[in-house]
Amino acid sequence: MSRSALSVLVAVAVASRLALAQIDPADPTPLVSKTYLYPNGIPYQVDPVASAIRGPQVGYNICNSTTQNQQSECQTSIVNNINDFCIWAPPQPNSTIGDTEAYEVAWCTQDHGTRLIPAGALTGVQMLITSEYIQFAGFINQVLVNLNAEDYGGELDPHGADLRGNPIGALMYSNAIPTVGANNNTYTQVIDWNSFIGGDTFCLTMCFPSDSQTNQDNYCNNVYDRMGCAYNMPNNAQNGTFEVCEADLKIPVGTYVTNGATMTFSQPFSGDFTPPYTPVVPASSSCTTYQSAALYSGLPTVAAASTTPTGASQTGKATGTGSASAGAPTGTTSGASALGISSVAAILGTLFAVAFLS
Question: In 10 A of CB 218, how many CB atoms?
Fold first, then answer.
């Protein structure tokens, strides 16, 4: 697709991105408007407002060697490259995303004052580098990062219906953001990002903050939270493969072309549905493949916890019998399956409480 044609689709998709914001009067400043220089400008907690409807931030944002352990409550994520990135996952074992989205913590592949993703948890990762964003997608043994084995998960992002984010107060930084005069020692705050985890898969996009608000709104769109990785972050991740590629830009989620006409699909708030289009995986090139042992050394070894979910409900659990999560098919151990087209069961598995859609 030409860049001019894609620009038209982006413009159309902007018009459809109307989140139902319900700003909390006790904490009216959106999380995306809270910016801090790394590391000395970061406060202990970005959102400590106890009188807010959802309560104060549970974790903390100043993370260093004193907080580096497997009980860390750090909520500052670092995303640099395929061997140095963090995901959001629950602090307690056997959790579901639907029950814990407000207080997920950072789990990382390197020391950043956070919990470390246990050895062997990551079984395939694809990193796509584009001109507007960087995208990760992959396979993970989610029990090792405190997700119940049967949870099909959902979305996490710096918005939420009250604009305080899920997790509340979560920050993200990267030294991979293209910034004039920057180098690998310069960390830039990632203002807009979104991610999914569940069903032993995950995906994450971080949008470049120097780009237009239009691009950030579309490539890190947060309102299609029931459509998972396959639609929000089309990819060719393979279980058993670890690779970094350059890639073309994706068509913004919810926007598609049929019979030459540009169409926009709006996700319903409830009920079963099937999107009227198949997501297109952008072309990629210049891929470099790695061995997991070379990427993720020194990670802790832990035993898998029981699979009985915590909490009174399993909001994030799929109601169907499908094999997909966060909108992506579960790969096989042979590495033959990719995080591609989602199933109806996958979509059903990304339900969130309506009051706080991510």
Answer: 28
Q: How far apart are CA 204 and CA 299, in angstroms?
A: 21
pTM above threshold 0.85: no
Q: What digits encode the pLDDT tens for the residues 194-226?
A: 999 999 999 999 999 876 788 888 999 999 999
- Can you read off the two tokens belonging to residue 179? 């910034």
- Secondary structure element (H or E) that encloses residue 206, with its range: strand 201-207
- The backbone torsions φ and ψ at residue 182, rounded to the nearest 5 degrees and listed phi first, read -85, 160
In tens, the pLDDT along 115-125 reads 999 999 999 99
Residues 108 and 117: their CA atoms lie apart, in Å, by: 5
Whole-angstrom CA distances from 50 to 45, 107, 149, 246 are 12, 25, 33, 44
Q: What is the dihedral of CA 327, 333, 336, 338, to 10 degrees?
A: 20
With residues binned 3-state (H G I as helix, E B as strand, rest as coil), the percentages for the chain, rounded to 5, are 15, 25, 60
Q: Is the dihedral of CA 239, 349, 80, 115 positive or negative?
A: negative
Classify burial at 34, counting beta carbons within 10 Å of its beta carbon; exposed 0-12, middle 13-18, buried 19 or more. Answer: middle
**Closest-CA residue to 229 (of 270, 208, 201):** 201
Task: Note whether 61 and 52 are within 8 A (CB).
Answer: no
- The amino acid occupying position 260 is G
